């Protein structure tokens, strides 16, 4: 599954140096995940299944400025029994890459507080 979404750079995202604060890059990853999976996450939550971030990494390539138009391309690159890995590329529409990152996501049973096998219905979605 591969999705590209536009994220809005807000004035509050900037740090004292006038570019987007490094913490916001993870927020942009989250925005892309939410846009891609919101309906599916809500369905899973009704069944007591949550998707948790257990590992997050980001390699910064170039600062993002307030005037930049920013996109996040995310792709599920690995699928295990209870987890899956998403890669992210923060970029503009001219091919400039601002950052690359990954998150490892785990399907989690809210009642038992333990990882569970990825539900079949969601597995089909992330396999794209």
TrEMBL record:
InterPro entries: 4-hydroxybenzoyl-CoA_TE (IPR050563), HotDog_dom_sf (IPR029069), YbgC/YbaW (IPR006684). Coiled coil: none annotated. Gene3D superfamilies: Hotdog Thioesterase. The keyword Hydrolase applies. One of its GO terms (molecular function) is fatty acyl-CoA hydrolase activity. Keywords: Hydrolase. PANTHER family: 4-HYDROXYBENZOYL-COA THIOESTERASE FAMILY MEMBER, NOVEL THIOESTERASE SUPERFAMILY DOMAIN AND SAPOSIN A-TYPE DOMAIN CONTAINING PROTEIN (0610012H03RIK). Belongs to the 4-hydroxybenzoyl-CoA thioesterase family. This is Thioesterase.
């Amino acid at each position: 599954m591969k999705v590209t979404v536009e994220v809005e750079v807000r004035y509050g995202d900037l740090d004292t140096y006038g570019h987007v604060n490094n913490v916001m890059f993870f927020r942009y990853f989250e925005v892309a995940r939410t846009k891609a999976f919101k309906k599916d996450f809500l369905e899973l939550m009704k069944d007591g299944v949550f998707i948790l971030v257990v590992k997050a990494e980001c390699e910064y390539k170039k600062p993002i400025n307030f005037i930049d138009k920013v996109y996040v391309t995310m792709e599920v690159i690995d699928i295990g029994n209870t987890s899956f890995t998403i890669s992210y590329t923060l970029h503009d529409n001219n091919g400039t890459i601002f950052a690359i990152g990954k998150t490892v996501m785990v399907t989690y049973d809210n009642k038992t507080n333990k990882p569970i096998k990825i539900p079949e219905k969601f597995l089909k979605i992330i396999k794209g």
